[in-house]
Write a structure and sequence with these properties.
CATH superfamily of the largest domain in chain A: D-3-phosphoglycerate dehydrogenase, domain 3
Shape of chain B: globular
Radius of gyration of chain B: 19 Å
Number of strands of chain B: 1
Helix content of chain B: 55-70%
Number of strands of chain A: 11
Strand content of chain A: 25-35%
Largest sheet of chain A: 6 strands, mixed
Radius of gyration of chain A: 17 Å
Structural class of chain B: mainly alpha
Number of helices of chain A: 6
Distance between the termini of chain A: 19 Å
CATH architecture of the largest domain in chain A: 2-Layer Sandwich
Oligomer: heterodimer
Strand content of chain B: under 5%
Strand order of the largest sheet of chain A: 3-2-4-5-6-7
């Protein structure tokens, strides 16, 4: 089932005008911020197809930045997000891309600070629901509507089992899980969407599991 | 968990409960929440809808200037004249349009099921309310009933114009409102399903062709169509009229039609009304130079 809650249908509460171009854009921005782990100092945002053609009329630009600032879809500051970012000295650049993509409402975000950066691709699939389809070169499918754990690990025997064993111990239910690797035996990424937020003790234990390099958490 | 309208109606009938109650119990079960928590979340949505209707009736204008103010015109007309289609009907129409005018003006709304179709459910609710005098509890239930039917559509077809045309958006929204009106008026679960089916049948094939790709023209007035049809279908079902084609098969037809619809008629702003000379001229006026790049 694509939708499992009545609040996917009656909701979200949002600043208009478009659930996919505005609310969805804000959720992509917020997912990017959560993946980066803090508020970025700068952002380069590439817009494709429908996003590129109509972003100003729909407020896709301020919604994406509002998400980067941590705003929810119904935050009254949403339409002022570009000014707020400017006052915080967040350096934001929008680039309209003419290249085609698989989905009409697509944005590629490269965000960072003085030392780190991440690159991700988000799509807005309708009714405010979004998916993150690419992270630092890894393909994935992450809704951003559920809490999730992203685990960078080495592609070795037992890496996945060591993670799922810990989740089972803490009775954390997995809603969706996928694994993607750059090459056999190289760096790989586990994406695990769970039903409830995962607390830090679980994350610490996961971090020390076999073959794990780095862990990031997304709270919904 | 119910997957079809048939299952939804069967659960309600066999347990002798309302459609809204089936949805509430499922939500509690899926999200592991108490009844109070589920209710509180829906009441928050109801409050947002109420505020949007109020704002719309005060009069708003969108950034582009394409939409706004029509809800006020209708309310004024109702004060001065007797509407041919009746006060309740025009009240619903103005409140549905008002909600979408607020949406176009970047105000706060609750997507039901999307932003572009957000007027149908609250528009009908706050109009029917004046005649049926529901409790706050029944008004919250109205949203759960709407959501139960929308849930089936979203999982078996689609609810966005980009995916399935306006039939998927305003068609679903108007049909959801029909079912909720029937429950509030004391109809049976099966009558809710019939009302839903009758509205959606009459929305089949409706394309998504917004001028300049924006959620304004014709979206605001399509919410008027969805909400008025919702009331007519609810009355028909309450009178005992049934849908010859079962509800789930109507949803299936909507899905197939959406799949057959060319992309120019699915929210790209390239076909239909968007492609008319006036539609093109408005686009050029709004986006200026960006038009010539395409």
């Amino acid at each position: 089932m694509k939708y499992n809650s009545v609040f996917d249908i009656i909701g979200p509460v949002m600043i208009g005008p478009s659930s996919s171009h505005t609310a969805g854009a804000a959720r992509i921005g917020k997912a990017a911020r959560n993946l980066f782990g803090e508020e970025p100092k700068w952002a380069r945002i590439y817009l494709y197809e429908s996003f590129a053609k109509t972003y100003k009329g729909h407020g896709t630009d301020f919604a994406l930045v509002g998400g980067l600032l941590g705003f929810d879809t119904d935050d009254p500051r949403m339409s002022k997000a570009l000014d707020i970012a400017k006052n915080k000295n967040m350096d934001v650049e929008f680039i309209e891309e003419s290249a085609g993509t698989n989905h009409p409402n697509t944005a590629r975000l490269i965000i960072g600070n003085d030392t780190d950066e991440i690159e991700l691709v988000g799509i807005s699939i309708g009714g405010g629901k979004v998916e993150i389809t690419e992270l630092n070169g890894f393909e994935l499918r992450l809704s951003g509507n559920h809490p999730a754990i992203l685990i960078m690990h080495n592609d070795r025997f037992g890496a996945i089992a060591s993670v799922t064993k810990i989740l089972a111990k803490y009775e954390i239910n997995i809603g969706h899980m996928e694994v993607n690797r750059k090459d056999v035996g190289k760096e790989a990424l586990m994406v695990i969407e769970v039903d409830q937020n995962v607390d830090d003790t679980v994350l610490k234990e996961l971090e020390s599991a076999d073959h794990i390099i780095q862990i990031a958490k997304i709270v919904s | 968990m119910f997957r079809t309208v048939k299952e939804l109606v069967e659960i309600a009938e066999s347990e002798n409960i309302l459609i809204s109650e089936v949805m509430i119990r499922q939500e509690m079960d899926v999200k592991n929440l108490s009844r109070e928590e589920v209710y509180a979340q829906m009441e928050k949505n109801l409050n947002v809808m109420e505020k949007a209707v109020e704002d719309g009736l005060k009069g708003v204008k969108s950034v582009t200037g394409l939409t706004g103010g029509d809800a006020v015109l209708i309310q004024n007309y109702m004060k001065e004249k007797t509407p041919l289609s009746g006060n309740l009907m025009m009240d619903a129409v103005s409140k549905a349009m008002g909600t979408n005018e607020v949406n176009a003006a970047m105000g706060t709304i609750c997507a039901t099921p999307t932003a572009g179709s957000a007027g149908c459910v609250p528009g009908t609710l706050f109009a029917v309310k004046n005649q049926l005098n529901p409790t706050r509890d029944q008004m919250i239930r109205y949203l759960f009933t709407s959501g139960a039917f929308g849930f089936v559509v979203a999982n078996n077809a689609f609810i966005s114009g980009a995916a399935g045309g306006c039939q998927a958006e305003v068609g679903s929204a108007g049909a959801m409102a029909s079912a909720a009106i029937v429950e509030m008026a004391g109809g049976t679960p099966q009558q809710c399903a019939d009302a839903f089916a009758i509205t959606l049948k009459n929305m089949l094939g409706l394309v998504c062709d917004p001028v300049a790709g924006l959620v304004e023209v014709p979206c605001v007035k399509r919410n008027a169509a969805g909400s008025s049809l919702a009331i007519v279908s609810a009355d028909m079902a309450l009178a005992g009229v049934t849908s010859r084609i079962p509800c789930d098969e109507v949803i299936g037809a909507m899905y197939r039609i959406g799949k057959q619809m060319p992309s120019v008629l699915r929210e790209t702003g390239e076909g239909g009304l968007a492609a008319t000379p006036t539609g093109q001229a408005l686009k050029e006026k709004i986006f200026g130079m960006s038009v010539s790049k395409e």
